[in-house]
Amino acid sequence: MSDATPIKAIGETYLLPEGTTAHDLTELISGVTENKAPRGWWVLFTLALLLLGLMTVCIAYVLYMGIGVWGNNSPVFWAWDITNFVWWIGIGHAGTLISAILYLFRQKWRTSINRFAEAMTVFAVLCAGLFPALHTGRPWFDYYLFPIPNQMAMWPNFKSPLMWDVFAVSTYLTISVIFWYVGLIPDLATVRDRSRSLLRKRIYGFLALGWRGSHRGWQHYERAYLIFAGISTPLVLSVHSVVSMDFATSVLPGWHTTIFPPYFVAGAVFSGFGLVLTLMLVVRSVFGMHSIVSIRHLDLMNKFLLATSMMVAYSYAMEFFIAWYSGDPYEWWVFYHARVGWAQPDHLGNWGPLWWSWYWMVTCNCLVPQVFWFKRARTSVPIMMVASIFVNIGMWFERFVIIVGALHQDFLPSAWGTFHPTWIDVGVYLGTFGLFLTLFLLFVRWIPMFGIAELKGTLPGAHPDLHHHEEPSPALAAEPSPAE
Amino acid sequence: MTTAQQHNDDYRLPATGYWANAWKLSGLLGIIGLIGSGITFATDPARYGYAYLFAWSVALTIALGGMFLVLVIHVTQGHWGITTRRLAEVIMLGIIAVAVLAVPLFSGIASGKFTMYDEWMHLPSHAEGAAHEHAAEGSTLGASVAHAQKLGEADIDYGHPEESPQAEQKHHETLQFKSGYLNQTGWLVRSVIYLAIWILIAIAFFRWSTRQDETGDPSLTVRMRSWSYISMIAFSLALTWAAFDWLMALEPAWFSTIFGVIVFAASAVAIFAVITLIGLSLVEHGHATKAITIEHFHDHAKLMFGFICFWTYVQFAQWLLIWYAGIPEESTWYQHRWTGGWQIVSYALIFGHFVLPFILLMSRNQKRQLGWLKAMCIFVLVMHVIDMYWFVLPTYGSTPRLAPNLADVSALLLVGGLFFSFVFYVLKRVNLVAVEDPRLARSIHLHQSY
Q1: Any A CB within 8 A of B139 CB
Q2: Residue A256: its chain B contacts at CB < 8 A?
Q3: A251, B329: Cβ pair inside 8 Å?
Q4: Do residues B271 and B84 lie in contact, with contact meaning Cβ atoms separated by under 8 Å?
């Protein structure tokens, strides 16, 4: 019995439909780049371009007027911009988790989603980077962030977590791009070899870096892939940990708590899986990829959502318990008053003005994913579609609750205030969806959106044991071989 | 009768030999520890209480690590760990021994002989506390801040609130505030609940697994999987609050949201070291050699390496955030582990629990050299013991002072000896491998390209 043979008695099934051949996979996946785009793609692409236009207009306006056109004001100096930054960075995490960590854990089902999610990582980090870059107010001076000699003889403050962010995010982007590209090479060569027109052949040939599929080539490729997986794994943890330290190194109640680094990482993976699932469901139906992304894959992704939702809920629980246990009245105020809206109103007789956002967060992140305890929900496309959108909303609210929620009422009641977004805030945020979706739709259209070579590796025929164990050899007969 | 049942005997420890007698050897160590414990307990029961809590925490974290491993194999439906799962199950069942060994601990605490939680367990009433302390005034912040505000920067002696009556009053108020949670009755009730949850999980999964050995029923695999999810949640919540109650409460004014995760990470590191060591020794003595191969040792070594990194990550997260913010209420914990000689232990943990294993276990070759792996596992296990020592002992006395003594060694021998005696005795009575697991053959023929 080999890895390739599912054990029916305990509910195992094949990853891909039985009888799928390597050729089927090549045809199906390369076909997307060769045939005309389906109408659904054009609809989405038009929408994406409209949003991209919105982003361009809004950002141009911000650059012209300055960030005063956002709602940020005393005491809430970080608001939607940083919320969006953290949200987009988080979206990227699922890609790295799926491509690197699940690879190290030998989770072969990842091959149906990894390429897709890796691409999302790259585009999400690009969107994320926009916000702090704009928030500096004068983005043309952003190069001050890098430790390069400049005319002001200024040197970055290496003790600042914001500085660490610059390095963490740029390293993450670099490695993610390289990792993604290395994985693409054999598939680009496949598309090259199938090209009918010279132009296609030239372009894909250039991108495939002279891949010949030789034994030696594969050996180097596998080794490089493993090394990149090893490098990316700590990056999944480090990037969002550093993002969490932007907040947690301060002494602000609601920001300063020791569980922040792993809590942010779990939240990032959770939100990333949410968006991967949303987009996967759309693309799967637009391009008819139901055989590659089967219900079994979606089931597993939903289990992941449930698991990471639990981790996020655990972190919330820790925060609430310790906010009480610490005996710190400021912690109490932030968690039980400003978030839950519990206990006494403030000196003006008001509840915290933003308490409703906490209820959004808990409902979307902790309650909604509980439906995935039921197999019926995990295997129902409409339910998971709705749930995954709730997860995306909930994780945005989580960052909003943390950032704005902690800033609007800190130590001194005289310094309290609240926050109202402007239409430019909304426009920039919606606009980044345009940037993301434009890049993403171009990717699904022109680059093999599933790892063809890796998917072939999961076919039963690819397993070295397939024929080996069919008849036990005398040496093996001495070993226990149950259920055979 | 299946082939597996015919070969069950291959996976039983023989009636004689090293492993058949391991439980006696371990028990002997326990008895030696008992003698030492008798002497040291008679000399200084309070000091012995700390030593016992430390030793008990070591056994506890190993048993909980075993439970984590069993549950995680079911949750993830992995096949890499099927051949060693029985070892983890037996260690998990050791939680029964841990619960029995908790009886002296809990009765010592209840009877007042062990004083580590006295600060809050025998908190004077509010009136009583206020009577001999100064009247409350000023900030409602924690003790150390009030202390700092009173005395000015120059006089701050971080983490020694007992030096100022005002600060002591604040400290008292903080404990008074927490007494709804931190009180003796609540603590004892919760402690029993944690142990009950774990024992329930341990017995259920051990029973189902050993029953499958006899019946070969694959539906038991499905049953274990379906119960593993909820068990994992119960396990981790109990572990978190147990870490709060048994370890964090040693410094009742201190708090950290990541504390439960840190104790969990320590358990996970320990279990991979223990399982690898037991597995290597079994194979060396000719048991289960076909089932537990170098591929399994390699996988365990990788996971141990991974959890060593995870342990470092969560420990570092806690330290960095507390250091960076520099709030006195929080930094006391590190103050206690950075003075009175404890600095050496802290450094030892940084290098021994992270830097060295990180370098010495990174490459594939190192993990597959079984002699080397064995040495590293012993080293990691020693570091785990030091880690638990570092959690408990700095809280002994009014000022932290590194002073290991016979009590620590005796308690460790007593608790460790009896714990492993129980584990090895159970091991003698079951198959070394879950012989009827449907994925067993797949696990035996584990392939890995990396």
Answers
A1: no
A2: 321, 325, 327
A3: no
A4: no
Rounded Cα–Cα distance for residues B5 and B213 (Å) = 8
- The answer to whether the CB atoms of B178 and A7 lie below 8 A apart is no
CA distance A385 to A396: 17
Out of A317-321, B25-29, B285-289, pick the least confident. Answer: B285-289
Handedness of CA A368, A370, A371, A372 (dihedral sign): positive
What would the 3-class secondary structure string for B355-401 be?
HHHHHHCCCHHHHHCHHHHHHHHHHHHHHHHHHHHHHHHHHCCCCCC
Tokens standing for residue A155: 């040197």
The answer to whether A322 contacts B255, with C-beta atoms less than 8 Å apart, is: yes
- CA distances B195 to A450, B96, B241, B389, Å, are 47, 8, 11, 22
Residues of chain A positioned with their CB less than 8 A from the CB of B233: 310
CA quadruple A27, A28, A32, A36: dihedral, nearest 10: 80
CB nearest B441 (choices: A245, A257, A484): A484
Q: Are B55 and B264 in contact (CB under 8 A)?
A: no
How far is Cα B38 from Cα B42, in angstroms, rounded to an integer? 6
Average pLDDT over residues A19-38: 92
Query: Does B1 lie at the interface with A, CB-CB under 8 angstroms?
Result: no
- Which burial class, exposed, middle or buried, applies to A334 when counting CB atoms under 10 A from its CB (0-12, 13-18, 19+)? buried
Q: Where are the domains of chain A?
A: 22-458
| Tokens at B360, concatenated | 């010495």
Please tell me the distance from the alpha carbon of residue B425 to that of residue B422, in angstroms, as a whole number. 5
Q: How many CB contacts within 8 angstroms connect chain A with chain B? A: 146
Residue of B nearest to A254 (CA): B257
Domain made up of A22-458: CATH architecture: Up-down Bundle (1.20)
Residues 6+ apart with CB under 8 A from A172: A92, A96, A125, A235, A238, A239
Of A329-343, B15-29, B37-51, B98-112, the poorest mean pLDDT is in A329-343
Average pLDDT over residues B10-16: 86
CB contact under 8 A, A10 and B140: no
Interface test with A, best of B71, B235, B321 (most A CBs within 10 A): B321
Asked whether the predicted pLDDT for residue B3 surpasses 60, the reply is no
A429-448 pLDDT, tens digit per residue, is: 999 999 999 999 999 999 99
Question: Which among A391, A255, A245, A251 is positioned nearest to A310, based on CA atoms?
Answer: A391
pLDDT of residue A5: 77
Q: Give the closest of B260, B441, B445 to A482, CB-based.
A: B441
Residues of chain B with Cβ-Cβ distance to A311 below 8 Å are none
| C-alpha dihedral, A341 to A342 to A344 to A345, nearest 10° | 10
Residue of chain A whose Cα is closest to the Cα of B321? A249
State which H helix or E strand residue B60 sits in: helix B45-76
Classify the phi-psi angles of A27: left when phi > 0, otherwise alpha if psi is within -120 to 50, otherwise beta.
alpha
DSSP A141-169: GGGGGSS---TT-----TT-HHHHHHHHH
Which residues lie closer than 8 Å to B442 by C-beta, 6 or more apart?
A1, A2, A3, B79, B82
Whether A222 and chain B come into contact, CB under 8 Å, resolves to yes
Q: What's the gap in Å between the CA of A88 and the closest CA on chain B?
A: 23
Residue B259 has which token pair? 């504390």
Q: How many CB atoms lie within 10 A of CB A132?
A: 23
Interface of A with B in 237-256 (CB under 8 A): 237, 241, 245, 248-251, 256
B contacts of A1 (beta carbons < 8 Å): 441-442
